[in-house]
UniProtKB/TrEMBL annotation:
Region (Disordered): 1-21
One Pfam family recorded for the sequence: ARD
Main localisation: membrane
Lineage of producing organism: Eukaryota, Metazoa, Chordata, Craniata, Vertebrata
Keyword Amino-acid biosynthesis tagged: yes
Protein name, UniProt field: acireductone dioxygenase (Fe(2+)-requiring)
Cofactors demanded by this protein: Fe(2+); Ni(2+)
Naturally occurring in which organism (per UniProt): Regulus satrapa
CDD domains, A to Z: cupin_ARD
Amino acid sequence: MVEAWYMDESQEDQRAPHRQRPNRAVSLEQLRRLGVVYRRLDADNYETDPCLKEIRRVENYSWMDIVTIHKDKLPNYEEKIKTFYEEHLHLDDEIRYILEGSGYFDVRDKDDKWIRISMEKGDMITLPAGIYHRFTLDENNYVKAMRLFVGEPVWTAYNRPADDFPARKQYMKFLAEEAH
């Protein structure tokens, strides 16, 4: 089961858990109120999983690929890791399904505080368009993930500040509506 918590302010190794003391856990309901959708799937059978097939059909995820993030597998590894960890948003939802390994997605809450979401094998997450976020490996330094898209993939990340994009404005409207 996915675990999430508010991060401490430490600037040390981004791959460390960075839990506050005492730990401030974040529930799936709190993530949902931020527009983050979590699912648990059978990563051992992703190629034939009827649940994944149904999610792809219902959500119209027509394109997918698989990426391995490890120093021996990803070209320009160090540069990519730094890029993934830059705070950014996308104009489309970001959907990631962890097939092997583990890592962290960090998202901003409504008060601009970082929440760390620990992802491991079998976890699928959808981050809504317009949410500020970042990704890093954890101390295991390895993840194999499926990336899913509606239509052709768009890889563009807009580093913060990117508040003038319609996707960000729509996301902020969603947060305001969730607060009421």
